[in-house]
Amino acid sequence: MKPITIDSPTPRNGKTGALSRLWRTPSLLAGSIMLAVLVLLAVLIPLISPYDPTKQDLSAFLQPPSAEHWLGTDQLGRDLFTRLIYAARTDLTIMVLAEIIPFCVGVFLGMIAGYYGKWLDTVISLITDTFIAFPFYLIVIIVAFASGAGQRGIYITFILVGWIVFARVTRGLTASFRRQEWVASARTLGLPGVRIMLRHILPNVLPQAIVVLMTDMVGLLVAIVTLGYLGIGITPPTPDWGTMIFDGQPFITTAWWLSAVPGFAVVYTGIALSLVGDGLADLWRKK
Amino acid sequence: MESALQVKNLTVHYGGFTALDGVDLNIERHATLGLVGESGSGKSTLARVVAGLIAPDEGQILLESELLTKKRSREQHKKIQMIFQNPDASLNPKHSIRQILSEALLFHRIVDRKQVERRCREWLDRVHIPGNALDRYPHEFSGGQRQRIAIARALSVEPRILIADEPTSALDVSVQRSVLDLFNTLKEELQLTMLFISHDLGVIHEISDTVAVMKQGRLVEVQAKAPFFARPETAYSRELLSAVPRMPKLSTTPGGNHESRT
Hints:
Chain B: GO terms for molecular function: ATP binding; ATP hydrolysis activity. The complex is a heterodimer. Chain A is mainly alpha-helical.
C-alpha cells in the first residue's frame, strides 16, 4: 500500500499546557488572581487580624482608618476590615454551596430534555418556563419569609429556582449535539442513552455550563447581599456584606466607608467572577 | 449468493412527507450496493433506518435472515456500522483518537483491555494515520483524516454491513480520491459488504457492484454496475447519467477512470 501524503497530520502548535493557556488569556488570569486574593484572605483572616469580627468594643466606635484599624471601626467598635473578610467567608461559602445542587440538577435535567426530546422535554420545558414567568426576587422573598430569615431560605430558594438557567442552556446545547453525527455514530455503535449523555454529551456541554455558572454566581451573590440588606438573609451578628451595608447607612455622611467598603467588595467579587467566566469562554472558544 | 441484508416494504413518513415509500432492497454478502439519487430522494433516510437511527413506520429489515426490531441488541448494533458525510462532526470533539477507537473495541468486547492499544494502532495503520495520532483530538486532523478515523472505528467492531452515507462528498477532490482508494482496498481485504450512498455517479461507478437509483422515496432501478452504466433501464437513470458533465469511461477495472472526472 502506498503512503498517502496529501493530508499529513497538522503539527501541534506551541505548548498546550493548562498553565501556558492561562497566560495567554488575560481576563482569566486577572479574574483568577482577584479571586485567589479574596479566597486567600478569607482563609487566612484569623492569622492576619487580631480582632474578633463579632466582639463589640464601644470605647472604640466609628474610628476612621488607622494603622491599628485598617478600615476603621463600625458603630459597635468592631474592626471593619476583619468583618469585611469574615463576611467574604460567609457569603462566598453560601454562594458556592447554594450553586452545587442546582448546577448538577440543571445540567442533568437539561441533558435529558435535550437528548430524549418528546414528552420529557415538554414537561421539563413547561416547568422552566413557569418559573421564568415569576420575577426571581419575588420567589426569593416569598421563600425567605416562609422559611424564616437565615441561610436556610437562600438554600431552599436556590434549589427551587437555581437549576433552571443551567437546564435551559444544557437543553439547547444537547438538542443541537443530538443532531450531530458523532452522537449518531455513538448510537449506531449501540451505546445506551445514559452512557452517550454522560460520556459523550456531558464533556461537550460542561464548558458552556461552567461559563454560565460564573455569571449565575454573581447573580446569587447579589441576591444573598440584597437579602442581608433587607434583613431577611443572614442574621446578625454573623458578618455579611448586606447587613454591613445596611448598618453603615445611618452614618453615610460621617463615615461613608462603612457602607461603601462592603459594597466595593461585592463589586470586586462580581468583576472577578465575570472575568473568570469570560476568560474560560475565550479559552474554550479558541480551542 | 447469500443475501446479507434484506429490506422489505420500508416506509417512513415525516409528518405529511413520505421519505421512504415501500422500498425493497437486497444486498448480497461481500458486495457493494451503490445507492444514487438526488438530494431529498430518501437515500440518507434509508441508511439511517437500516442503521437503526430512525424507526420505520412500516416494513422489515432482515440481517442475514434475522429480523431487526425497533429495539436492537448490542450484538445486532455491532453488525451494522455507519460512516457519515460530515467529517467535521463525525468524531466527538472532546475525545482523543484513543478514546474514540478503544470505546468501540471495548464496548463490543472485540479485544480485552490489554490488547486495545495494539488493535487501535493496527487500525490507524490500516487507514494510513500515523500511530502518534492516538493522543490527539479530532480538531487536529484534516477532513480526510477524520473520515479515515471514522472508517477505522466503524470497521474495528467487525460489522457485517458497513453503511457509508456520502463519505467523500464533503472532501476535496484529491482527498476524495485517497479515501475512495482506501474503501476499495479495505473492501477487498476484508471482504466487506457495503451500502454506499453518493449523489456522484463517478464515485458510484468506482465502488459499486450493483447500483440502485432512488427518486422521491422509491427505488426506481436496481442493476448490476456494468449494464447500468451501459444501458440504464429507466428514463430517470438515463437523465441522471446524462447530467454528469463527462461520463466516466466504461472500463471494468475499478479505479481506472478517475482522470475523466472533473
